[in-house]
TrEMBL record:
Signal peptide: none
Pfam families: ABM
Domain of life: Bacteria
InterPro entries assigned to the protein according to its UniProt record, in alphabetical order: ABM_dom (IPR007138), Dimeric_a/b-barrel (IPR011008)
Protein known as: Antibiotic biosynthesis monooxygenase
Domain called ABM: residue spans: 5-103
PROSITE patterns, per the entry: ABM
Keywords from the UniProt entry: Monooxygenase, Oxidoreductase
GO MF entries: monooxygenase activity
Organism: Halomonas aquatica
Length: 115
């Protein structure tokens, strides 16, 4: 049974703010990596490629957490709360929009053992 949680957090910077948003998100990586249940926490930026021409927000965090409780605890950390308040919720912030989703790799009808 996998209890892992996968988070994809996409960010749309305001025009001209791409580098600032990328750097602000990179600054979150070191402390997230200190969390015992953080398995992966990497910010990426979209690049042009003829074999992958889909549309997305240009900056994406790829996160893997040991379990849902760890992900939710991460989201409640002061540093994370302040990031969203400063960069997204504040009208003067550098992020126009964000889309944060969580996923599981378990099928909906998986007969998970009870431990």
């Amino acid at each position: 049974m996998s209890r892992k949680i996968y988070c994809i957090a996409s960010f749309k910077p305001k025009p001209g703010k791409e580098d600032a948003v990328f750097k602000a998100l990179q600054a979150l990586e070191p402390n997230a990596h200190r969390e015992d249940a953080c398995l992966k926490y990497t910010v990426t930026r979209q690049i042009d490629n003829p074999f992958a021409q889909g549309e997305s927000y240009p900056i994406v965090f790829h996160e893997t957490w040991a379990n849902l409780e760890a992900f939710e605890a991460h989201c409640q950390r002061r540093e994370i709360q302040e990031f969203f308040a400063t960069h997204l919720e504040d009208p003067s912030g550098d992020i126009e929009d964000a889309n944060v989703c969580v996923y599981t790799d378990e099928p909906a009808d998986y007969d998970a053992p009870r431990l």
